[in-house]
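Problem: given the chain below (258 residues), write out its structure.
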Amino acid sequence: MQRVAALLSYDGTNFSGYQVQPSKRTVQLELEQALTKLHKGEKIKVISSGRTDAGVHAKGQVIHFDTSLTIPANRWPNAINACLPDDIFVHEVKPVAVDFHARYDTVGKEYRYQISLKRQLDVFRRNFTYLIQQEVNTAEMELAAHYLIGRHDYSSFCASNTDVKDKVREVTAIELVKSGDELSLRFKGTGFLYNMVRIMVGTLLEVGYGKLESEDVAHILAARDRTKASKTAPAHGLYLWKVDYPNLVFDYYKNNES
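Solution.
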């Protein structure tokens, strides 16, 4: 048996999230069905770097699986894509060590949240950007974002229905990048809690609207209380952008650094 890792993208619009759920269409289900077909009925289990919720997209999700097939690495993507629906695409496959684990070996992740600053709905981007239809003060948002960088207890920015006990995580960078009528909020860290990025986005937008002061974010963080932060931003603006590993680098990233 050979263990391989795959880098893939998906449009989360028509999925009930990544993880397999009874009677629902999920990314994991489609991947496992495709691989099982490719393996002539042999059940294949895939492990991902992490789950994404319904409506959340991925530019650079990573999975691993074990295979009995002897397909060259450069031919794997075409073989898998031929069995996948059009809203999932495998970019690259690499052989990895037998003890490689897509989830537990991660050393960093990047999420991006895309906001549309247009005044009117763009029907072609409605599932991929969050249309806010009002002015935001990005300078104040950047000031507020600095309070969220570092190693902290992010209980205030974690969904209340999670059973995770340790809510200490490290956020290494938050960047706001404006390009035309889109604002991209980019979050890098060693790990993130359930809904953490979307709650941070919702709170930073409140600062941008002038409903919160930038320094209020520091108090919200210190409170360790989900009720102190703002509403969770909608799922469709969020992308799992990149996953980092200590001994695995995908060539795909060399041509897609922006």
